[in-house]
Design goal:
Layout (H helix, E strand, L loop, with lengths): L43 E4 L5 E5 L12 E4 L2 E4 L2 H15 L3 H8 L7 H11 L2 H12 L8 H13 L3 H18 L4 H13 L3 H14 L5 H13 L3 H13 L6 H13 L3 H13 L6 H13 L3 H13 L6 H13 L3 H13 L6 H13 L3 H13 L6 H13 L3 H13 L6 H13 L3 H13 L5 H14 L2 H12 L18 H13 L3 H14 L2 H9 L3 H4 L3 H10 L3 H21 L3 H13 L7 E4 L3 E5 L5 H22 L5 E5 L1 H13 L6 E2 L3 E5 H8 L2 H9 L5 H11 L5 H4 L14
Helix pairs in contact: 1-2, 1-3, 3-4, 3-5, 4-5, 5-6, 5-7, 6-8, 7-8, 7-9, 9-10, 9-11, 11-12, 11-13, 12-13, 13-14, 13-15, 15-16, 15-17, 17-18, 17-19, 19-20, 19-21, 21-22, 21-23, 23-24, 23-25, 24-26, 25-26, 25-30, 27-29, 29-31, 30-31, 30-32, 31-32, 32-33, 32-35
Keywords: Repeat
Pfam family, one: PPR_long
Protein name: Smr domain-containing protein
Length: 755
């Protein structure tokens, strides 16, 4: 009989004259179709198909759609059964699906539905479009109340259809619905985020997450885990960490799979304490850490220098029955090597090979170079040999490291063997390798071999002037004059060299090298060595030597005044290329001239050097306030000459032109202060000595300049006692000038040829 409960049939009166009287329907609500009373007064008989009376009484009144939620059986109210109501709703929805016709049919239902009916109907209908149509019709009814279970079923249907736009739209409806009615939708809120996160809808899921957070709704553990997993898989660990912070504040815990993602991400991002805390928490909650968790902690802790923790995790991993990988061995060995713990690195190296792993090229290189640099050459060479046997070709860097360390320890045979092996392999040694090897050969006094290496260095395209000069300086410092002359002849081919097997010279003597030899001559204490050094200077045939010799001859031989002679020499210098070298030469030459008592010649050299702006900031005239001379960057001899010459200039300006500054300063620095002060004290100067400056008032200096002894001193005299000069020379003048050479590092003369 379906929904109508019982078939209602009006009995036919026994009077044969009865003919179809007019009929009006009466409703439970008390109304009827003609506006009269809704009560039933006559007896009604209910018959079956055979005409037998089933029941006699006042009858069952009809239902008014949308008003009544029961029927009257006589004077008794009987509610509709939920199952019948749900069945009728499902029947209507499945027939009409969606649209105005569906809504019309739902409006005609002969009972008042409830949210329970709607929820139960949604469970049966399944079709998401039909479910949404029924739900939206229900929302417009006066009896509608927001229902979390109802929303969950709708979201389930949309998710099955992969309709994520529909999910987002319905989510926005639900947020408005919940806020207007003050009803929580805990399950449906979380279900939305989980579905969107699993579908990798990153921005939408995070937006929904923030809306739920702002609304104050509780977020469950599964939702947090799904969001964290999404962001970690998308390579956005810091966003995942932000969500984890919210999760921690809410007192929620990670699940096993999220631990596996979270710990490596925290470790790789450098948040090691947080990663280790989660690692401990994971074990306490009886989750078994996977290999990736152990691997990430071992690697990150090792790289951060936390080697004890790294090794502890490594040992713990093996306790879980997990086997270290080759990558883990490499990471651990690299960490221990970088920390300088080579013994532990070597133990891991042996353990790795016993485990059946073959070290890669990078690891071989690391072991060889680290042990070589630490002086453990036996271990380094053993690993180097294994590396070659394994079929790896060492890099120039590895060869150079081994070669330079053998050279530094004076092992000529091993160094030369490595050099020959390197060149035979077609590898090009670097400048530092050649320099180390040449220095070793020079110290071992192997002139012929050094010359061979120098020529090969030149053939590789390197500029060899500096290296050749350095070898020469080794012989000069060692007092090996004969070897120095042999090397010099080889360098300059000035005479038939003893190394006559070589066709052409390897290098020429430059101004820096000449000056370095001259600096040794200035410091020389023995006459015999002075003669040898002078012979070396002569053998260079450098123009600076001709100039220095010309300074010591008379004007008749020079055929020009000394000042003109000096200017002519300095005009021939290429200041763009040799400015630093020229400044070095002036400093050493003035030392030599002062020690030799050649004061006037020294003043000429200083005057011309200043004219050519080799010392542009030495003298400063600050109008009437202060005049100063800065000699901090000068040698002892140059400083003394500069002070005398500059004070002479100050005197002329003050006496002849009447310009008197407030004060005069001599900026000496702590090193030259004593020497300059002693020189000026010999003529009772007014200059007072402070930490780095000698200063005096202009008026006092003016009075001092008027004394005849001062005039004589400034014009002709500079004390040149050895006790004033020599006690500072060794510190002020190193034997070479690396700071000069570094200004213009040697460049290859030609590109390496392609073999």
């Amino acid at each position: 009989m379906g929904f109508n409960l019982i078939s209602q049939k009006l009995s036919v009166p026994k009077d044969p004259n009865f003919v179809n009287p007019s009929f009006s329907r009466n409703y439970c609500s008390g109304k009827n179709s003609d506006g009269g009373s809704g009560e039933w007064t006559e007896e009604i008989e209910y018959l079956d198909e055979s005409g037998s009376v089933i029941y006699s009484g006042k009858g069952v009144r009809s239902v008014e759609p949308g008003v009544d939620d029961h029927v009257m059986v006589g004077g008794l109210k009987k509610p509709f059964l939920n199952a019948s109501a749900v069945a009728k709703i499902v029947e209507v929805v499945k027939r009409w699906k969606w649209g105005p016709e569906l809504e019309t049919q739902l409006d005609k239902l002969q009972f008042v539905p409830s949210m329970t009916h709607i929820t139960q109907s949604l469970k049966v209908i399944k079709d998401s479009d039909a479910c949404l149509s029924l739900f939206r019709w229900a929302k417009r009814q006066s009896w509608y109340l927001p229902n979390d279970e109802c929303y969950v079923m709708l979201f389930d249907g949309l998710n099955q259809n992969r309709d994520f736009d529909g999910i987002q739209s319905l989510f926005d409806e639900m947020v408005g619905d919940s806020s207007n009615n003050g009803i929580s939708s805990f399950t449906s809120y979380n279900r939305v985020i989980q579905y969107l996160a699993k579908a990798e809808k990153l921005e939408v899921s995070f937006c929904c997450f923030k809306k739920i957070q702002d609304s104050g709704c509780k977020i469950d553990v599964q939702t947090y885990n799904s969001l964290i997993t999404l962001f970690l898989n998308k390579g956005l660990p810091y966003k995942a960490f932000e969500i984890y912070g919210s999760m921690e504040a809410a007192g929620c815990l990670l699940d096993g799979s999220t631990y596996e993602l979270m710990i490596p991400s925290l470790a790789k991002s450098g948040r090691l304490d947080a990663a280790f805390k989660l690692f401990q928490e994971m074990k306490e909650r009886n989750f078994r850490p996977g290999f990736n968790v152990f691997s990430s902690l071992v690697d990150s802790m090792g790289k951060a220098g936390r080697l004890d923790t790294s090794m502890k995790v490594y040992m713990e991993m093996q306790g879980y029955g997990l086997r270290p990988s080759a990558t883990m061995y490499v990471s651990l060995i690299e960490s221990y090597v970088k920390a300088g713990k080579l013994d532990a690195a070597l133990r891991l190296w042996d353990e790795m090979k016993k485990a059946g792993f073959r070290p890669n090229f990078g690891l071989y290189t690391l072991i060889v170079e680290s042990h070589a640099k630490s002086g453990k050459l036996d271990i380094a060479m053993s690993a180097f040999t294994d590396m070659e046997k394994a079929g790896f070709l060492p890099t120039p860097s590895t060869y150079s490291c081994l070669l330079e360390m053998h050279a530094a320890t004076g092992q000529v045979d091993s160094a030369m063997k490595l050099y020959n092996s390197m060149t035979n392999a077609g590898l090009r040694p670097g400048l530092s390798t050649y320099t180390s090897l040449l220095t070793l050969l020079a110290n071992k006094k192997l002139v012929d071999v050094a010359a061979k290496i120098l020529l090969e260095m030149k053939a590789m395209g390197f500029s060899v002037d500096v290296s050749a000069s350095d070898v020469l300086m080794v012989y000069i410092k060692d007092g090996s004059v004969d070897l120095a002359l042999r090397w010099l002849r080889f360098m300059g081919s000035s005479a038939k060299p003893l190394l006559e097997t070589y066709v052409s010279s390897a290098a020429k003597v430059d101004l820096i090298l000449y000056t370095s030899i001259l600096a040794h001559l200035v410091r020389c204490q023995e006459e015999e060595n002075e003669k040898h050094l002078m012979s070396i200077l002569s053998a260079t045939k450098h123009k600076a030597h001709s100039f220095m010799c010309g300074l010591f001859t008379g004007p008749e031989q020079r055929k020009q005044p000394v000042l003109s002679f000096v200017r002519e020499f300095f005009q021939g210098i290429d200041y763009e290329l040799e400015e630093g070298a020229a400044r070095y030469f002036v400093n050493v030459l003035l030392n030599y001239l002062v020690l030799m008592g050649q004061i006037n010649r020294a003043r000429c050299v200083w005057k011309v050097a200043y004219e050519n702006k080799l010392f542009p900031k030495a003298i400063v005239f600050d109008q009437h306030i202060a005049w100063s001379l800065d000699v901090r960057n000068l040698s002892v001899g140059a400083a003394l000459v500069a002070v005398a010459h500059t004070l002479h200039r100050f005197r002329k300006r003050m006496l002849y032109y009447g310009v008197v500054p407030r004060r005069i300063k001599l900026v000496t620095g702590p090193t030259l202060k004593i020497v300059v002060a002693q020189m000026l004290n010999s003529v009772e100067s007014p200059f007072e000595v402070s930490k780095v400056v000698l200063r005096a008032p202009g008026d006092s200096v003016m009075e001092w300049f008027k004394k005849p002894i001062v005039q004589q001193f400034l014009l002709n005299e500079i004390p040149s006692r050895a006790d004033i000069l020599l006690h500072k020379l060794n510190t002020l003048f190193p034997s070479s000038a690396p700071e000069i050479r570094s200004l213009s590092p040697p460049k290859p003369l030609m590109a390496r040829r392609t073999m």
